[in-house]
Amino acid sequence: MKSIPVDSWTKTHAEKLYGIPNWGADYFSISDKGEVEIVAPVGGTQARVSFVDVIKAMQERDLEMPVLLRIENLLDHRISYLNKAFTKAIDDAGYQNHYRGVFPIKVNQQNHVIKEISHFGSQYNHGLEAGSKAELVIALAHITENDAYIVCNGYKDAEFVDLGLHAVKLGVNCFFVVETPSELPTIIKRSRELGVKPKLGVRLKLASKVDGHWSEDSGDKSIFGLNTIQLMDLIEQLKQAGMLDCLQLMHFHLGSQIPNIRNIRNGMQEACRYYIELIREGVPLQYMDLGGGLAVDYDGSQSNDTHSMNYHINEYCVDVVEAIMEAFDPENIPHPVIITESGRATVAYSSVLLFNVLDISHFDPQPIPEKLPDNLHEMVGNLLGVADSIKLNRLQESYNDANYYRDELRDLFHRGQVSLRERALGENIYLVIMQRIVNKMPELDRVPHELEKLGEELADIYYGNFSVFQSLPDSWAIDQIFPVMPLHRLDEAPTREAIIADITCDCDGKIDLFASTEGEQRRTLPLHPLKNGDEYYLGVFLVGAYQETLGDLHNLFGDTNVASIRINQDNSFDVVTEFQGDSIADVLSYVEYDPYHLQLNFRDIAEKAVKTGKITVAERQRMLKDFSASLRGYTYYED
Ligand SMILES: *Cc1c(COP(=O)(O)O)cnc(C)c1O
Description:
Layout: H1 11-18, H2 20-23, E1 28-30, E2 36-42, E3 45-50, H3 51-60, E4 67-71, H4 72-93, E5 99-104, H5 111-121, E6 127-130, H6 133-140, E7 149-152, H7 158-169, E8 173-178, H8 183-194, E9 199-203, H9 228-240, E10 247-251, H10 261-280, E11 287-289, H11 313-328, E12 337-340, H12 344-347, E13 351-361, H13 378-387, H14 395-414, H15 420-440, H16 454-458, E14 460-464, H17 468-471, H18 473-477, E15 484-486, E16 496-501, E17 510-511, E18 525-527, E19 537-540, H19 547-550, E20 561-567, E21 573-579, H20 584-590, H21 595-611, H22 617-632
Parallel strand pairs: 4-20, 5-6, 5-12, 6-7, 7-8, 8-9, 9-10, 10-11, 11-12, 14-16
Antiparallel strand pairs: 1-2, 2-3, 4-13, 13-14, 13-19, 15-19, 16-17, 16-18, 20-21
The structure holds pyridoxal-5'-phosphate.
């Protein structure tokens, strides 16, 4: 931790502090005006648009904060990037087949995200992966006239299978990946009845384990995929049904957000061994599907930390291609089509959550009064002594002493031996001590463990107009780090240390873990003080994957307003789509209230109040109008 140079502050300091160059993948930067801008690759050059201008455009269209912003150019660029990286790795190595990506719909099911992926992706034959009937319905409706694939994972009932078989009949490369032994009889039965030969895949349960949050997707205890015994059984059943030639695809999924390239290499080696052995068993495999797992560097540390990745997409592609060639070439086995189901790496960058700060709570102590009471309580005097004797080499000791005296003071208050006024004076001196300790901490080489959280305890609370539960569920559920930073005023030193609370009344509704350029995570985020009534806007970045439909209605905060923009070569942008978020009536209906009946109930209550003389008829009218306006309103804080 280095202290912030307030006077000589430049945007370069801001870049370093918030780590944009580390996690931004060149899609975001800070302008000379101190605003964060989107850097969009358009037509061979880079176009720039400031978030401040985007927010203005949103407001002109009555899209109040919070807004989930989608940037179509970034989604397009990710799809190109992935496809080009595989193509280059394939060309460079002389690999004798091609790559086909499929986007796993579960990662972001929103209509225009899927539309954009299938529209823009069609030039690369980029397809879709469906894990349920509902997702297959989406996939089937987005088939384009090309060689894109649909891969069906998940449990499949007869209806699911029929839908997929229709696709095959339409000429689509639609694969059923068998995940459990019980699925095969249904698939065989339905394909016979419909007279369609299915394209089959098999999901394997690899023994290779991975690091990170989703390690349970792999290994013996993974709930998906066939083990070797079940695999042999599957082959036997297919042989008996005369359908072994249908089994063309081998699938495995090591887990999402795999931070360590070593895990991917190991998994590939094991998968290649399976493939070779299956070929020896007479299975005519032609496709190798590696599932998802390609990570996103959320904290920008380029490490094998859960929130990061110690490799680059290009390296991932090269390693996959090389692993196959190294294993297959000595055996003279033809190279398979490589399929990946990269979700996170495709959509994370393209969405940013924008919100405004509503209020700030400070925990700064008052200055210690010049003149203290003559009969100062002994315990308060002790605290004063600690405050006056803080030394760099004795911070822990001062911390211990202060806590001891503060606790004694509270005990005495409990027993009626200390007055409220005395206790308040003592507690304030305690805060002064803590503040002085925190101020000295940057000079320490190593911060003692107990003091690490002190900065957080004294930090300001910035109340943001959003719900963690609705918009950043992984931040709440699994402590996922997302880059958060102010969207403007970056030519000004941020002089406050803060945590960010949302507007739910839940103590878990907060962001208190942040990426840090120095590798370790930080517990507080430097922010600017609010300035004479001006709005202060923050952005949470890389939220395009998994956050939207996993979110919930905690405290009945609903979907936020959503807009998507496309950036043009001349640094202008078009608002392509806009959706008002949930109204209060919407979220109430999700939990089975009928807004109309609520209104009638309230009318009855108001009418009774008129009868008993509590309110006038005019007041009643005003109340009913406000009630129905609320039902139509946004669930978030409105000005
Ligand atoms: C979740 C999932 C994916 C997507 O994983 P990412 O890490 O987001 O790329 C792909 N395939 C399967 C089978 C999955 O369950």
